[in-house]
Specification:
The protein has helices at residues 22-28, 55-61, 109-112, 132-146, 190-200, 238-247, 275-284, 324-338, 348-352, 355-362, 367-373, 375-385, and strands at 38-43, 66-72, 88-89, 96-99, 117-121, 150-153, 207-210, 267-270, 290-297, 309-316. It has a 7-stranded mixed beta sheet with strand order 3-4-2-1-5-6-7, with helices on both faces. Strands 8-10-9 form a 3-stranded antiparallel beta sheet. The protein folds into 2 domains: 22-231 and 381-388, Rossmann fold (3-Layer(aba) Sandwich); 238-353, Aspartate Aminotransferase, domain 1 (Alpha-Beta Complex), CATH 3.90.1150. The protein is built from 12 helices and 10 strands. It is globular and about 65 Å long.
């Protein structure tokens, strides 16, 4: 059975967010969906109610159900780690924390033997290769095998629910950074993704999505009235989340994407780049919605650690005109043209997830041609995606791919 609480008209004070998350709605319902159940909670530091209370504390303190286990994704239960995560015990509750980013990436039968329902509450960023959504899907599969319900406490897509940007992941390239065919920027909330995965991948989970109140497809994170909590150590700003579908593609190259600086995913560079020359070429490409500033920076971690890099700072001028994936592909194309000997792009395919687009990119085709080549697959995705959507689209701003 598929269930979500319908959004209702609610009054707001100046200190009340415009959008209430699934955990807020679940609390309003006195956790009735979990009545009498032993609960396993998949969460991290982003699992917060509107008043700042943690989802862990709220469910643990509830007299309606009993929290018996915690499950942590990549970066750990506190969201601070960039390595494999070991299982542990939670200091506050004394509950076991089972790591889903270490030796195992899905909960085994031994972890679920005392669990009557699995609850998921983690903030996503709206991009296919962010691992939290794969963790959710894996947990849905295990819940289906165990015959226990899976409940998603929905949260905003911080980069909105309108813009869709390709290319599509090929099914045979599925991995932990790409659970199943999706465009890079999918325009769905975590709850909508759960509905889509359950239907399209035929998971067969007893899925319940506790919907938000007040969220619209046209909302960016700053429209929600909520406080931004960095979902992972290098996803520090909403600007980074907007650029991430494009700049993260460059993780598959020998460029720094700003890790080890105060602006990850908002800068790119390498020791051999002439900043002004790169900016001139990018301005000639006439990309919409983004400005380029030549910079020098020295990362204190990751690629080119301790080495001065020439590069660019990316400034968003118009979120409605920005196509972040086209930006990322243009960066690859221009860098390959300017620095054919220095620039290495062999691992980009892991992020693009599409062999046809990768081949055309290596052949020197323009980014707009690459995306146009994939548009029939995106159209089919949009048609199938429609059935998984929960939220009002009547007031959504129009957006392109």
């Amino acid at each position: 059975m598929l269930l979500f609480w319908e959004s209702t008209q609610i009054a707001h004070s100046e200190n009340t967010p415009v959008v209430l998350n699934g955990i807020d709605v679940l609390r309003e319902q006195n956790f009735s969906l979990l009545a009498g159940k032993r609960v396993g909670l998949i969460t991290n530091h982003t699992g917060l109610a509107a008043d700042g209370a943690t989802t862990i504390d709220l469910i643990f303190q509830s007299k309606t159900c009993r929290l018996v286990a915690l499950f942590s994704p990549e970066h750990g239960i506190r969201g601070t780690m960039d390595t494999r995560i070991d299982s542990a015990v939670d200091d506050r509750t004394g509950l076991p924390i089972y790591s889903l980013y270490g030796d195992v990436k899905r909960p085994g039968a031994d972890m679920l033997k005392m669990v009557d329902a699995l609850v998921f509450d983690i903030q996503d960023v709206g991009t296919r290769f962010y691992t939290y959504i794969t963790t959710m899907a894996y947990c849905m599969e295990e819940a289906a095998k165990a015959g226990i319900p899976f409940i998603v406490l929905d949260r905003p897509n911080p980069v909105g629910g309108v813009h869709i940007e390709g290319p599509m992941l090929e099914a045979e390239r599925s991995s932990f950074i790409g659970y199943m065919p999706l465009p890079i920027r999918h325009g769905m909330t975590i709850g909508e993704l759960a509905r889509y995965f359950n239907s399209e991948n035929k998971i067969g989970a007893e899925l319940h999505v506790v919907a938000m109140k007040g969220w619209r497809r046209s909302h960016y994170f700053w429209d929600t009235g909520q406080v931004w909590t960095a979902p992972s150590p290098n996803m520090r700003t909403v600007t980074a989340a907007l650029l991430y579908p494009g700049t993260c593609i460059l993780e598959g190259t020998n460029l720094s994407v700003g890790r080890g600086t105060d602006r990850p995913f908002e800068m790119i560079g390498a020791p051999w780049i002439d900043s002004r020359r790169l900016v001139a070429e990018l301005r000639a490409a006439d990309l919409k919605g983004v400005h380029f500033v030549p910079v020098y920076f020295t990362p204190d971690a990751d690629k080119h650690q301790g080495v001065k890099c020439g590069g660019i700072s990316l400034i968003i001028g118009d979120t409605e005109k920005l196509n972040s994936v086209q930006l990322g592909l243009t960066l690859v194309s221009v860098l390959n043209k300017l620095y054919p000997n220095e620039f290495k792009m062999d691992r980009i395919g892991e992020y693009l997830g599409n062999s046809s687009v990768m081949r055309l990119l290596k052949e020197g085709k323009s980014p707009s041609d690459l995306l146009r080549n994939d548009s029939p697959f995106l159209k089919r995705f949009l048609a199938r995606r429609r059935q998984a959507l929960i939220y009002d689209s009547k007031s959504s701003r129009k957006g392109g791919w």
